[in-house]
Amino acid sequence: MYKTKCDNKLIISGEPEPANITEGCGSLGMFLMKRLLRHGNEVAVTSFDVPAVVLSVIPWFHAFGCLTLINVLCNKLKLISLPKFEEGLFLSCIENYRCTLVFVVPPLMVFLAKHPLVDNYDLSSINILLCGAAPLSKETEALVKKRIGVKHILQGYGMSETTLAMLVQSNARANKSGSVGTLQAGSLAKVVDPESGQLLGPNQPGELHFKGNQIMKGYIGNEKETDATIDKDGWLRTGDIGYYDENGEFFIIDRLKELIKYKGYQVPPAEIEAILLTNPKIKDVGVVGFPDEAAGELPLAFVVKQPNVTLTEDEVRQYVAQRTSPAKRLHGGVRFVSEIPKNVSGKILRRHLRAMLQRPMAKL
Length: 364
Prior knowledge:
Blueprint: E1 2-3, E2 10-11, E3 33-34, E4 53-56, H1 63-74, E5 78-81, H2 87-97, E6 101-104, H3 106-114, E7 128-131, H4 138-148, E8 152-159, E9 164-168, E10 182-183, E11 187-192, E12 206-212, E13 218-219, H5 223-229, E14 236-244, E15 250-255, E16 260-262, E17 265-267, H6 269-276, E18 282-292, E19 296-305, H7 313-321, E20 333-336, H8 350-356
């Protein structure tokens, strides 16, 4: 199977093989992948004990949206699908259709936690909020639970390359706040030191590697990238830093390439963002490293203020300083912006934020 140079058609030669062609949402832009569904290879489908009314705004071309649709069909559930996110429409659908299960991404969780419009709608029908596509902080999770009283907020972890979820929380067990759940049946996982390649044990952060029949066969027409992602033993390198605890629950820290290197310390931007989002004056935030000759990189925050509030750079810096270790403080400063650039799955586009560092500062 290969992709022609003149168009996006795929030509299958020899015996036809089942394949799933997925649009990736990573920083490299669109890529095509083929997953060979070997004999005995099954994608885990979540079962529901009671009828559910599902609301989803996740695009179907995204792996999260694709598997959401498969789950709904397999379980014969009612699906309310929105072509795009609109604040009032999203909230009114929950209220009018009494949605019990809502698939969300972290920006939607921030919306539920902080937007004033949420108070105007009855969201009491929601039993489960299932969040994926990007890390959700325990701080944002707590804010949503406190505000709308939802019983279960579940997380999962997966990639387009892994046919979605490798890790998932279950509402049948007590989940630790901030975790992304336990390993799915038929899957293998290990945590590896990204520099030495040494295998790490419980509560030791490192790069997550996965293995199983649901791992993609490779990137179509890109053998070099495939070899860099999947080793000779079939282990897929995720590029994500995380760890598992003594109970087998996994926690995601950040992307390996996004860690800020400050004076030899590795600073996860997501950790600082989670702290800042607990500030009621802050609507949204993104953190990157600002290049510095002496320290390497300085943590810097792009902040979106809530409407009609007064917030200074010093207030923001002090807010973080009071809640973190010295290495994780905003040594690079604060820039106020109108919005944080994100892709369709809700991941912060940090390369866009870094590009903004080259522009003159605007007064907001």
